[in-house]
Amino acid sequence: MAQRRPAKNSPFLAPVPFYWCDKCHAPVMGRLCSCGEKTRPVSVTPPGDVRPAFDRDRNLVNRLFEEQFGCPLIPEDQIAILNKVPDEDRMEEIILGGAVVCAIRYLPAEERWEVLPREAAAAFVNPTKRIIRVNDEAAGYIKDGSSVLMPGVTFVSPDISVGDAVFVMSEAGECVAVGRAKMSYEETVGATRGQLVRTRRTQKPIVDTAPTSWESAIKANKNILDIYENKSVEFVRDVISKNPELTPTVSYSGGKDSLVTLLITLKAGLKLPMIFADTGLEFPETLKNVADVAEKYGLSVISESGSEEFWQGFAVQGPPAVDYRWCCKSCKLSPVRRIIENTWGEAVSFIGQRKFESAKRMQSPRVWRNKNVLCQLSAAPIQHWTAMHVWLYLFREGAPYNPLYELGLDRIGCFMCPSSDIACMKEIAARYPEMWADWEAKLSAWGDEHGMPAEWAEKSLWRIRERNEEDADTDSHF
């Protein structure tokens, strides 16, 4: 499972409002905190659709940091925030105290994670591995932007190899830079010249080291969440008033965005039937979440399976790929069309689409008809919400979100979705060995029948077709 998708640049979708209140010690999704204080912007890599780090995420970061630098990074009294960064497979920026303190990147070819620390991390940790110490004179030059040269170096960790990410510390223990080692420890022994570290130059951020909590974050964002909720409720009521002849419904996938959309319809005083397209490739947690949500809020679920159509398509076309997602039409859109045509003839569906999810959804209208499901008028109440708005709202409302998010998944869909990164697929294969073994057996059988080499299935080469087909992103919502 080592094949990775081709490197690609993610278009800058739009500025995502992400700020920090140093008085409340909390992230704020606007320039003004509910306490009345002005917030400061937090600089993250675009598109910047940040989200909370759950315990599994925190444990992964702490384990990696301890392995590579000798100490865990995230204190127990700090909330951590993740920002998914465009990369060849998976890369996440870690935000503590309103500053990016490191990034973690998965390297598929080596089947390992690497940590890329930022200087701000030193506000929370005192690394004991992969460190280089320099004298005061050298520290001054390095702070001004110089690389780390052997003259002035007083200590090099014996565990440093060429290419390792390292901390550069002064004799007093101040972090003066981070970067990559250009020489191994062995090469530095007896050396008096040479570039030891190519430093990473970043603007020094403000770091808030006071204890933080999600309760404080919810309180700090109260006014903003109220505004977003009210506008979304107004949108729902407006769509219904303009389409009185259509039966209103809510599409539910088991994901966070459709759950918030469902909550908004409830806030609008509606109890709408839930449309659920069971792809036949769902996680067991997703199926349970659909049932739990329906029971908690007293809603009916109308479900239709797309499993038969998927496997018929698989037999003819092979597995779907990142650039050839024929599956969305058969697994999601066709079942939804059958539900609506057989139950109401035509309906309006409130859908958990957000513009910050992708470039295509950024360009999508807020009310539209899918060419494959013309009987459905789709409407997106949370089109302008970020992932952090969604999560803070779910936390505030105590809503039963899918537990898969706490297991490291940042999006919920089919368990073998080709758009998942390799790092995620490895986690899924380990957690659901029977499901994954069955999928790989079907892949191998199709590959053998069509003359594919063994590594086509073993190394996930099936995920990339390089057909340059039109992306099915817009059509994947139902």
Q: How would you describe the overall organization of this protein?
A:
It is built from 14 helices and 20 strands. It has 478 residues and is of the alpha+beta class. The protein folds into 3 domains: 1-118, Nuclear Transport Factor 2, Chain: A; 126-201, Archaeosine Trna-guanine Transglycosylase, Chain: A, domain 4 (Roll), CATH 2.30.130.10; 221-476, HUPs (Rossmann fold, 3-Layer(aba) Sandwich), CATH 3.40.50. Strands 10-14-13-12-9-11 form a 6-stranded mixed beta sheet. A 6-stranded mixed beta sheet has the order 17-16-15-18-20-19, with helices on both faces. Helix 6 crosses helix 11 and helix 12 crosses helix 13. The longest helix is centred in the middle third of the chain and has 21 residues, at 222-242.
Q: Mind telling me the CATH superfamily name of the largest domain? A: HUPs
Structural class comes to alpha+beta
Oligomer designation: single chain
**How would you write the strand order of the largest sheet?**
10-14-13-12-9-11
Described by strand count, sense and barrel closure, the largest sheet is:
6 strands, mixed
**Contiguous helical run count:** 14
The number of strands is 20
CATH topology grouping of the largest domain: Rossmann fold
- Whole-number mean pLDDT: 93
CATH architecture of the largest domain: 3-Layer(aba) Sandwich
Radius of gyration: 25 Å
- Quickly count the domains: 3
Beta percentage is 15-25%
Molecular shape: globular
Q: In the CATH hierarchy, what is the class of the largest domain?
A: Alpha Beta
Runs in which pLDDT lies below 50 for 5 or more consecutive residues are 1-12, 470-475
Name the helicity range: 25-40%
**Distance between the first and last residues' Cα:** 31 Å
